[in-house]
Amino acid sequence: MREATPDDKKYAETITQEMAESAKARGTGIAKRSPEYIQTKMDEGKAVIALTDDGTWVGFCYIEAWEHGKYVANSGLIVSPPFRKSGVAREIKRKVFELSRKKYPDAKIFGLTTGLAVMKINSDLGYEPVTYSELTTDEEFWKGCRSCVNYDILMSKERKNCLCTAMLFDPVEKAKAAPAVNGHTAHSAEDRRHRRVMAENLTLFDRWVHFKQFVLLKNWWRKENDNPEKGKSILSFLIFW
Ligand SMILES: CC(C)(COP(=O)(O)OP(=O)(O)OC[C@H]1O[C@@H](n2cnc3c(N)ncnc32)[C@H](O)[C@@H]1OP(=O)(O)O)[C@@H](O)C(=O)NCCC(=O)NCCS
């Protein structure tokens, strides 16, 4: 696990292919990335890559900055299927989070996700669930959502809500909660309690997220399809989903 370099550009095609295939398999939306875009991130030193000793690609994630570095997103997290469920994503996210903190120490770090795994990892890194209004207003960021299958839902909600859950790490809030002592960040009792409560409630939170997604999708389909019979069959599809 290390920062990606220009020598890693040969993996860009494999990475973007896996991103697209995983999104298709999950039936969820994703902001599409080109191999060239991934390569730019490698050139800029804004990516983390995991490889085996013999050079097999294992995982990847990159950094995007918005509003002149006021906001940073750790995007495009992907782990090659044979290497999943062994802690690779957790390690990659930790590394890319450290890299983001080093490059943009004052930035708010945020992410949008539909996955429980990412919510768990983000929560352990100190992210908190927030409303979309707390994210960057940079048009370029929101343009990334255009290639997502759920873009119509996002726009119908005037960019205030969608199927993804928004999570944010605010360095100012964190510093208040955990002042540095002799250069080390001491976690306050309140911060520790908050983390414990978040961890205990993640399953509940996941159920709430699914409920929110159900309501958003149902309302969207209702608007799109005035036919009540069509609406009923979509509703039964959503219940099973
Ligand atoms: C999501 C993904 C990155 C997870 O990678 P991974 O290496 O398997 O994750 P880890 O092994 O580090 O697991 C991290 C935590 O999430 C949990 N987790 C992993 N996959 C999960 C899943 N599908 N559902 C629920 N929890 C999951 C793990 O149990 C672990 O929690 P724990 O430490 O409390 O046990 C990987 O499945 C993937 O690449 N999926 C396709 C792309 C994607 O969804 N990217 C995220 C876009 S926001």
- Helicity level: 40-55%
**Distinct small-molecule ligands in the complex:** coenzyme A
Instruction: Tell me the distance between the termini.
Output: 35 Å
Annotated CATH architecture of one domain? 3-Layer(aba) Sandwich
Low-confidence stretches: 237-241
Q: Characterize the biggest β-sheet.
A: 7 strands, mixed
Give the CATH superfamily of one domain: Gcn5-related N-acetyltransferase (GNAT)
Radius of gyration, taken over Cα atoms and rounded to an integer in Å: 19 Å
* Strand order, sheet with most strands: 1-2-3-4-5-7-6
Query: Helical segment tally?
Result: 10
Q: Average the pLDDT over all residues and give the rounded result.
A: 84
Helix and strand run: EHHEEEHEHEHHEHEEHHH
Count every beta strand, where a strand is a DSSP E run of 2 or more residues: 9
Approximately how much beta-strand content do the residues carry? Answer: 15-25%
CATH class of one domain: Alpha Beta
Query: By helix and strand content, what is the structural category?
Result: alpha+beta
CATH topology of one domain: Aminopeptidase
Shape: globular
Describe what you observe in this structure.
The protein is of the alpha+beta class and 241 residues long. The protein has a domain at 2-169: Aminopeptidase. It has helices spanning 12-26, 35-43, 88-103, 116-125, 139-143, 151-156, 171-177, 189-200, 202-224, 228-240; strands at residues 2-3, 47-51, 57-66, 71-79, 108-113, 128-130, 165-169, 180-181, 184-185. The strands form 2 sheets. The protein has a 7-stranded mixed β-sheet with strand order 1-2-3-4-5-7-6, with helices on both faces. The protein has a two-stranded antiparallel sheet with strand order 8-9. Strand 3 (57-66) and strand 4 (71-79) form a beta hairpin. Helix 1 (12-26) crosses helix 2 and helix 3 (88-103) packs across helix 4. The chain binds coenzyme A.
